[in-house]
Amino acid sequence: MATLSLKDVRKSYGKTEVIHGVSIDVEDGEFVVIVGPSGCGKSTLLRMVAGLEAISSGVIEIGGTVVNDLEPRARDIAMVFQNYALYPHMTVADNMGYGLKIAGLPKAERAEKVRRAAEMLDLLPYLDRKPRALSGGQRQRVAMGRALVRDPAAFLFDEPLSNLDAKLRVQMRLQIKELQRTVGITSLYVTHDQVEAMTLADRLIVMNAGVAEQIDTPMAIYDRP
Ligand code: ADP
Ligand code: ADP
Predict the structure, then answer these.
(1) Whose CA is nearest to atom 20 of ligand 1?
(2) ipTM for this model
(3) Which of 44, 127, 138, 146 is the most core-located residue (most Cβ within 10 A)?
């Protein structure tokens, strides 16, 4: 059974259908990247999985549970956005631990999970800083850490690197690769950047005008004559 499963998912705004029956399975530990031009429906698709946008028809399952009618917070996922969405008045540690606090986890357990994630993401020296005292790359790592501590069934990434400069993007790609290797994060990752897609994907979904046109390994898609 796939960890994340979309079956014939559609979305219409008014009378206009923008997602035309997309079906995707993301297996346990698999890193699936959706790549396509601006406006093809990547963000809408991800937001439907997260529960931030209602689906018009089809079925979305997370960890074997149909989530169509579940609130975002009742879905076993964590989302990483391009604009970080950190709380400015909270420290790095409190930002990372906030979701666990809401979930009612005792303080000592939160602190341990936060410390472990911070170690993986090279954030230990910054735990007591506020987001404004961090670089863009560090902020994005905090956003990753906040998702990581929750240990969700699947991670959803919405163009997380697009606000970073070229050098930082490469660094973050390597860091995400390292997380794939060590933690085996099950992920659905959206980007318009083909290099990013090829570097990260176990499997690629090429999306165009609301349709998943190709689903295959990066090799099979880009090595075609
Ligand atoms: P991408 O993330 O690939 O750039 P989007 O998911 O943002 O694409 O958008 C997919 C399509 O849906 C676009 O044609 C966009 O104009 C349309 N769309 C997105 N949000 C809305 C909305 N709230 N109302 C109407 N159309 C929308
Ligand atoms: P509470 O509001 O319950 O008193 P805190 O605001 O003290 O909790 O802490 C919020 C979260 O941040 C908790 O998950 C806590 O464990 C974590 N935390 C705070 N400071 C650190 C730190 N220096 N190292 C690791 N974790 C920390």
Answers:
(1) 44
(2) 0.69
(3) 146
Distance from the first to the final alpha carbon of the chain: 34
Mutation pick for ligand 1 pocket among 11, 18, 20, 79 (CB with most ligand atoms within 8 Å): 18
Count of CA atoms in the C-beta half-sphere (13 A) of 56 = 15
Distance 201 CA to ligand 2 centre (A): 34
Nearest to 158 by CA among 38, 77, 61, 42: 42
User: Cα(47)–Cα(26) distance, rounded to whole angstroms?
Assistant: 16
Residue type, 189: Y
Distance 62 CA to ligand 1 centre (A): 23
